[in-house]
Structure prediction request, 549 residues.
Amino acid sequence: MQRLSTVLVKAFRDLGVAEKVYGIAALFAVMTALLVVMAIQSVRLQTAYREDLVAPATAALNIERVNGLIFAIVMESRGIYMSTDPAKAKPFGDALTARNRELGKVVEQWQTGILPDDAARFMTFKKRIDQFIEFRRELVRRAVEISPAAGREWGDNDANRSLRTALNEDLGALAGIYAERTKTVAELGDRTRLAAWYLALLGVGAMMMAGLNVLVMKRFVVAPLSDITEATDAIAAGRIEVAIPHMTRRDEIGRLAHAVQNFRDAVSRNLQLEELEIGIAKQRDEAMGQRDKLNDKYYAAKWQLSAAINNMPQGVIMLNAAAEVLVINDRYRKMYGLPPEIKAGSSLQDILQCRVRSGLFSGNVANYLAAIIARIAKQEPAVSEVELADGRVVRISEQPMPGGGWVATHDDCTDQRRMQRILERTEMLLVTVIENIPEAIIAKDARDLRYVFVNRAAETLFGVPRSEIIGKTARELFSGESADLIEGYDRQLLTENHEIEIGTQMIETPKNGSRKVAVRRMPIISPDGGSHILLSLIQDQTEYARNAA
Prediction:
């Protein structure tokens, strides 16, 4: 056995790497195929086991239920026999009738699951069951309609007992059949368990094959390749004397080792050639020429980048992880009045000290610098606005750079903020005027005719708060006649697309009764020439009319 093992190991070593890998892969594929076949067989056996188990189990349950119901019917029959008059027999008769129906349902359900082999025997049994049910039904009828004695005379006789005996024999025969089938199911279950064991063994075999594959790859491929890679790195580093491993192998690894040896010899010859003075001088000249070209490209790119940064409308500053200046443009210098000595290589602290001296920084330099360094370390972008001591507002956008560092753009947005404040004051003034004029002002969206704005006078006119008006249509606020009138004016305004003065008329408001109003309507034109907003100015003349009357 030991000699056979030695021969097999030697033969395996002599195989090529591809042959080893393909051989193991083939064995693994065969093992996997066997696993699939056994899995399919196991599923088929389990399916057959479940299907064969259902019929005997269901039949056994039905036999027990039929036996129980027959016994219950017999007990109810005895109750009828012992009764002295029809009134006392009726409860037993009702219970017997209910058991009869239940027995019939059980047999009908049982019949739906009968196998073809059992159909003839089951039909004989079913006929007896039908006779038994009909016999008991007639017993109840006689006992209730005639007398319990008549019922007993009908039921307590040899014919009834013979029928019961036959039923018991049928049930026994069916029970015997299903008992035999239960044995068959048990045998099938044993086969299923055996298939499961085979499946488990094949799974263990597959795992062993996978482990063998890993072992072979590590020992015969990965480790030798690692050795050869180390030798190659040593040769590339100039250690020509290094020994090449695995030269004696006859497989692909051995051929690779010979190739590395050839590479080592070629490197050795190249080194000898490089020692020649003419070759060395030529290579030096070429290297210097390449260096000059690279320098030219570098300075050109640097000049272009500097010109682009200095012509940006925003101030730009770039910092490294230690808050030292890498790039700073002219716009940033002018924005904060920095002297010429502040340049690349200066620190952010130097810039802040200059701003303190010029009055453009009033905070704590140490705290501000610590916050900047913390943001650089966290690589978190930030946007903020700072108001300088001279009234200017600067918007600062900070972005982290890959590998650490920070770039920030400073944009003077003083004019934008000044215009924004003017606009806010103008809007506030306009709202104050609109809310306090005595005329009701109403605005609708021209697309769906829903109210988008009403002033305080409109709330008073309608008697409804604006929260209940905004977003609704006239149809949702006014009565049918008033809604028709308003919608008609809206359509007219959309069609004519110019101001309309309607004059004085009566309208029925939602919660302020009838009001006499004068209405002037006008469209607000959108850039495309269509109506964007429908504006109505309504003057409530109800009180004037009453005073005049």
Observations:
- The mean pLDDT is 78.
